[in-house]
From TrEMBL:
GO cellular component annotations of the record: bacterial-type flagellum basal body; plasma membrane
Region (Disordered) location: 1-25
Family per record: Belongs to the FliL family.
Broad class of the protein's primary localization: membrane
InterPro entries membership: FliL
Protein name, as recorded: Flagellar protein FliL
Keyword presence, Transmembrane helix: yes
Amino acid sequence: MAKKPAKDTEKEPSGAEDGEGEGGSSKKKLFIMIGAGVGALVVLGGAGAFFMGAFSSKPAVADAHHAEVVKTTMYVDLPDITVNLSSTDQRAAFLKVKVSLEVSDKATVEKITPALPRVLDAFQIYLRELRVSDLDGSAGLYRVKEELQRRINTAIHPARVDAVLFKEILVQ
């Protein structure tokens, strides 16, 4: 019976060697996984920096914005516009608007002045189709502003107006 314990002790060391081998391979796998994770982060970080323009020779957005601010900006005041708004009931609603146009150079101002009747006509046609509910809130006014800018740029093409600025809006 002395032989039986000897055989069991022989199996334990071989089992212990297998356990050590598994522990070593699990450590290797852990280091490989950590290395792959770090490598993936480096690659993703580099791709993100590339797409955000860190490696381009173009000026940064802040620099481009600063260069635009330095440009001379001129304003053209349009005459007051008063129109009646479209309504489904018998009650009349009126809109009075004072508009100023932002332009970047004097040549654009010189193109707007002779085309002013066409510009005012385009504005009045659009404004007369508006309802009081179209002017509710800042989103409504923003849509009106964008549409007026589109119409004036169409009227004075190839010149461009940079912005339409409301000086006064009165809905009555």
